[in-house]
Structure formats: structure tokens, C-alpha cells
Design goal:
The chain has 21 helices and 22 strands. It is α+β, with helices and mostly antiparallel strands. The chain folds into four domains: 227 residues, Orthogonal Bundle (Triger factor/SurA peptide-binding fold); 96 residues; 124 residues; 106 residues, Roll (Chitinase A, domain 3), CATH 3.10.50. Strands 9, 14, 15, 16 and 17 form a five-stranded antiparallel sheet that branches. It has a four-stranded antiparallel sheet with strand order 19-7-21-20. Helix 3 packs across helix 6, helix 8 packs across helix 19 and helix 10 packs across helix 15. The longest helix has 34 residues. It is flat, with a radius of gyration of 34 Å. The two termini are 41 Å apart.
């Protein structure tokens, strides 16, 4: 077994500490586990116009793609560059996968889609649910299949980064290091205790004011009235007649009422890389079951309950329900669509193992079944067409009748709304917190001439035109207005400095063996890793203290709050690892190192494949 030096161990621990945002190792007294969490790793400018936000090779990432990636989640502006960076990384992988010709088969795509829980009902893939969910997202099956193809290609490219072997000694040392718990009493030296003795002179206030004039400058502000013309509102007044639905159904009946088949199966599970003896045993078992079915076809459900190794259908006698052509893996799909009703297949091999299939029923969808989907499709099309046509007229009206929003409001039956005060940098109203819209509001034409702005797309299918009601120029606040705030700020700064000095002195005395005359609260159990109300920087100091002679003392500055003192009164070693725990920790350490390797690989790809950020600040990410 290789010997682990203290230096190597410290280096490893340093690695875990530095990557704590991406990797959380949670160790308990009784059990040990490692949880790996990967998050996305402020620009309201991303809301603006322009043809793209970033370009990877020759592929552009547009504002619309960013909006699609965010979806309905509430993502603050400062997080959007991180989402964009994830899209850049994904495209880097796709570019490299293309260069390496990493092809993805249709079978792989079908299998991946069938395995997605959102598309399943009672543990089985539902073609109808698949179709409904895609329609709700206004996405075609081809679009979604391309996304799945891209994801699989990327995963193939990264597959090698999650493999590797870690030493048993390393796992044991890491478990001991990270699994230790300490009982710690905490005492805070607060600036509040020093405030009564602090004084601030008028000269100090004046000096601060003169040195920080920008801090007391109010930005230019405006208050707006605005009109919102949206596809969502337009949809409320658009309906589809029964005749329109019927006409579309008759014209597209073959596509809409595609045949579906209901089948049951018995599965003998067999891995693709199974050894010859396992394949032989599975084949023999399948043949024996098939012989029994030929003799007693009516017992299919009973035999499936007893012999099938498909946990999703065995309990239901092998029943898979109805599915469309192409919904199952190809060998199964081909066999099922060749059978006649009531017929039992031979042995069919797929990536899942060996199947024996019985066709239970065949059906085509009725008009009543597809009517809601057709109505939704026609309404979406009509709303989209109507919006595009009327959006042009809306834009013309707010431009031609530039002195008022009322003509456009009356023409489109819209309500003129009013905003709170906003600046060039931000607006309280999320709808107006759009860079292009704010730029328009503070343009000379809108701010000074009081004209309507052009119709600006602030979200997909939503146009807004604004007009300035009143404005305030940028101005500095007078000293007498801000004097009290400056005094309070300077007092707090002085008190904070005294608190830190006092805490630092007390800690030094305690570490030298000075008498402990402090009144400590009850000690609390703390772990090095995992969820904690204690900030990470303080946890580091607590576990940095030598525990070979207790009590041990540590301390840390608390930003803006003074100084925290810690008294370590007990150290509890991590539990010994059993084989399962050691394997789990080892596997997750491999995954952790793999993620760091992936980050390095992506950085290397950036040096090979040109990445152009439209927003210059993103280049530093």
C-alpha cells in the first residue's frame, strides 16, 4: 500500500476545500457518503437586442436560446452570464464531438427518451404524454430528438473523465480528515459593544463627504407610462371553430390517427456485454418459456408475472399498454408491428435482453381523442400569425402618433400603465427591467422630446412602448442631508476596528496559555463538511486548531460584524470505513477528480475553438 505523506494529504484536502462549491462531502458519525453537486458556472444587457450573445466556432448563441435555457425560472440578471457560459461549454463539446465524428444512433435516442421519467406513466413510456409535453413547450419531436442527440454526443465525449482508481489509503485518510467532528463554543466580539465610546467630528464627516462625492450622487431618473401588447393577451380573444378543427383533421387524418399497438412481453434480462455462459442460460430459459406459451398461450399473463424480469410490467402480466410506431427500441418495435392481434412472437433480442411479445390490440386514434391537440395547434398558429400582423400595426401607431400612447391603446383596447421611478441601470418592474427598453427611455427622443419609444420586444411575444411622464437629472445630495448617515457609517467602522483588535488580542493571549476568564456559551457539534450555519471561513479556522491538547482556541474576523472566538472542547474521530463506505467514497472521489479534469478539458477546448463573447466582460469568466 502506498505511503501517504502529510504534504500529499494536505494538498488533497486543499483541493477539496477549494472545490467545495462544486463538491460537498458529507460525513456522519454512523455512516459516510459523498454528495457531488454541480451548479451553473450582473448583466441585464443580456435582455437586449443583437444577433448573438456568444459565438463558438461558427455557431451563434442568441438571446432567444438563453431565454429558452432559463425557461420559467426566476433567474436574476447577475446569474445570466453563468447560464450563458454553460451554453458556451455545451457548444464547445458539440463542436469537438463533431470534429471527432462521435455519431449517435436513432436507437440510442429512442432509448434515452423512453427512459425519461417525465414521459412515463406507471413506469412505462407514454407516447401521448411525450407528445403533450412537447406541445406544451411548443417544441417539435425533431427539435427534442436533436437536443437528446447533442446531450448523448457530449456525454460520450466526457465518458473517460469519470473513470480512475484511488488508493485505499487515500480514501481512509480523507474519511478520517473529513469525518472528524468537534464540539465548539463560540463567542462573538461585536462592534456594538464599542459604539458608546466612539465619537466622530464634523471635520471627519466633511473629509469623508469630499472624498466620496460619487457615493452621494443620485442617478438620472424617469417615470414612464407604457403599453404592453402581448401574444398572451391576444390569445384570450381568439377561438377556433369546430369546423376549422374538423377541416384540419380531415386534411391530416393519416398523421393524426397513427396506428398504436398494445402489447405484453416477458423479458429475460441480459446485459449487452454478458459472458457467453450467461447468454446461453438466458437463451435456454427464453426457449423453455416460449415452448410453454405455445402449449398454453392463455397463460401468458400468469407466466409473465412469474418469469418476466421487467419490474415495470411483470406485476401487470407483462402489459405495456398502447404505444406508437418508433416509441420502443427498434428490434422490439419491429417485431410488435409485424404481429397480428393475439399472436405471440419468437424470441426478440434487444439491448435490454430477450423478449417474448404478445400483441393484445391495435387501434387508431379517433377524432375525439385528437380534437384537443388539433384545437391547441390551430390556436397557437392563429395567435402567432395574428400577433405578427398586428405587431407591425402596433409599432406603426406608437411611431406615427408619437406624442401619446392613447391612440394605440384605443385601437388595441389596451390599458396605459404607469411605472415607478427607474434609472438607466435598473427598474423595479421586472417587465421594464430590460436594457434595450431602458436605453430607449433615456434616449433624447423619448426623454427630452417626450416621444413614444418604438415597440420593444422585452420577452418572446411581448412588445412594450414607453413614454416619459417626468424625469429628474442626476444630482449630488447636500452634506447636511447625508451627514447623519456618514456619522453612523464612520462610527461603525471605528467600532468594527476596535472589536477586531480586541478579538485578535484575546485570541493571542489564550493561545499563549493565558487565563480563560471569558463566559462561553454551551458547545455545539460541528462537522468539517456539509450543511452548517457557521460560515466556511470560520469552519476552516476551527478545524485548523490542533486538537491534540484541549481546549484549543481559534478565531476569525466576521465581515462587518466583528471577531469570532472559538473554543474546541472535544474532538470525535470519524468512524472506520467498512468496504461499502470505502467503495462509495472512492467512487465519488474519482467523480470529483473527473469534474476537475472536465473543467481543464473545456478550458483547453477554448484555446482550440474560437469563442467570441459579444459582452466583453464575459471573456473574463
Amino acid at each position: 500500500m502506498p505511503r501517504i505523506t502529510r504534504g500529499v494529504a494536505c494538498l488533497m484536502f486543499s483541493f477539496v476545500e477549494k472545490n467545495k462549491t462544486a463538491v460537498q462531502v458529507v460525513l456522519g458519525l454512523v455512516s459516510l457518503g459523498l454528495v457531488v453537486g454541480v451548479g451553473l458556472t450582473g448583466y441585464s444587457a443580456m435582455e437586449g437586442g443583437g444577433s448573438y450573445l456568444a459565438k463558438v466556432g461558427q455557431t451563434k448563441i442568441t438571446p432567444r436560446e438563453l431565454a429558452q435555457a432559463i425557461g420559467n425560472r426566476a433567474v436574476p440578471n447577475e446569474m445570466k452570464p453563468m447560464v450563458l457560459e454553460q451554453l458556451v461549454k455545451k457548444q464547445l463539446l458539440l463542436e469537438q464531438a463533431g470534429l471527432l465524428h462521435l455519431d449517435v444512433s436513432d436507437d440510442q435516442i429512442r432509448n434515452a427518451i423512453a427512459a425519461i421519467p417525465d414521459f412515463q406513466e406507471n413506469g412505462k413510456f407514454s407516447a401521448q404524454r411525450y407528445k403533450d409535453l412537447l406541445a406544451a413547450q411548443q417544441m417539435t419531436p425533431l427539435d427534442f430528438q436533436q437536443r437528446v442527440r447533442d446531450d448523448i454526443a457530449s456525454s460520450h465525449l466526457l465518458a473517460g473523465f469519470s473513470s480512475g482508481i484511488q488508493s485505499t489509503a487515500v480514501a481512509d485518510y480523507m474519511a478520517a480528515l473529513l469525518g472528524e467532528k468537534r464540539d465548539v463554543a463560540m463567542l462573538q466580539i461585536s462592534p456594538a459593544a464599542f459604539l458608546p465610546q466612539i465619537t466622530v467630528s464634523d471635520a471627519e464627516v466633511k473629509k469623508y463627504y469630499d472624498a466620496h462625492t460619487a457615493e452621494f450622487k443620485l442617478p438620472e431618473m424617469a417615470r414612464l407610462e407604457y403599453l404592453v401588447f402581448s401574444q398572451q393577451e391576444l390569445a384570450k380573444n381568439i377561438s377556433i371553430s369546430p369546423d376549422e378543427v374538423k377541416k384540419y383533421f380531415e386534411a391530416h387524418q393519416a398523421q393524426l390517427t397513427g396506428e398504436e399497438r398494445k402489447a405484453s412481453h416477458i423479458l429475460i434480462a441480459l446485459a449487452k456485454d454478458a459472458k457467453p455462459e450467461a447468454k446461453k442460460a438466458a437463451q435456454a430459459k427464453a426457449e423453455a418459456i416460449l415452448l410453454e406459451l405455445k402449449a398454453n398461450p392463455a397463460r401468458f399473463a400468469d407466466i409473465a408475472k412469474k418469469e418476466s424480469q421487467d419490474p415495470g410490467s411483470a406485476g401487470n402480466g407483462g402489459d405495456l399498454g398502447f404505444f406508437a410506431h418508433g416509441a420502443m427500441v427498434k428490434p422490439f418495435d419491429d417485431a410488435a408491428f409485424k404481429l397480428k392481434k393475439g399472436e405471440i412472437s419468437g424470441i426478440v433480442a434487444s439491448d435490454f435482453g430477450l423478449h417474448i411479445i404478445r400483441l393484445d390490440d391495435v387501434r387508431s386514434k379517433t377524432f375525439a381523442e385528437v380534437q384537443p391537440d388539433v384545437e391547441q395547434k390551430l390556436k397557437l398558429e392563429k395567435v402567432s400569425q395574428s400577433f405578427q400582423k398586428q405587431a407591425e400595426r402596433f409599432n406603426e401607431l406608437v411611431y406615427q402618433q408619437a406624442d401619446s400612447l392613447k391612440p394605440a391603446a384605443e385601437a388595441f383596447k389596451l390599458h396605459v400603465q404607469q411605472s415607478d421611478w427607474l434609472t438607466r441601470a435598473a427598474a423595479k418592474d421586472e417587465l421594464l427591467n430590460n436594457e434595450k427598453l431602458r436605453e430607449a427611455a433615456f434616449s433624447d427622443d423619448v426623454l427630452k422630446k417626450k416621444h413614444n419609444s418604438e415597440a420593444i420586444e422585452v420577452a418572446s411575444g411581448t412588445l412594450v412602448s414607453v413614454r416619459v411622464i417626468e424625469s429628474k437629472p442626476a444630482q449630488s445630495q447636500k452634506l447636511e442631508v447625508v451627514s447623519a448617515d456618514i456619522t453612523a457609517k464612520l462610527k461603525q467602522e471605528k467600532a468594527l476596528k476596535l472589536a477586531i483588535e480586541e478579538g485578535t488580542k484575546k485570541l493571542a493571549d489564550l493561545k499563549k496559555g493565558g487565563a480563560d476568564t471569558l463566559t462561553w456559551p454551551a458547545a455545539q457539534a460541528m462537522a468539517r463538511m456539509g450543511q452548517s450555519a457557521v460560515p466556511e471561513a470560520q469552519i476552516k479556522e476551527i478545524f485548523r486548531a490542533a486538537a491534540n491538547q484541549l481546549p484549543a482556541y481559534a478565531g476569525a474576523e466576521v465581515k462587518g460584524q466583528g471577531f469570532a472566538l472559538f473554543k474546541v472542547v472535544k474532538s470525535t474521530p470519524a468512524p472506520a470505513l467498512d468496504a461499502t463506505m470505502r467503495r462509495q467514497l472512492n467512487e465519488n472521489m474519482v467523480q470529483m477528480y473527473g469534474q476537475v479534469e472536465v473543467a481543464s478539458y473545456l478550458q483547453a477546448l477554448k484555446s482550440q475553438i474560437k469563442v467570441d463573447y459579444k459582452l466583453k466582460a464575459m471573456a473574463a469568466e
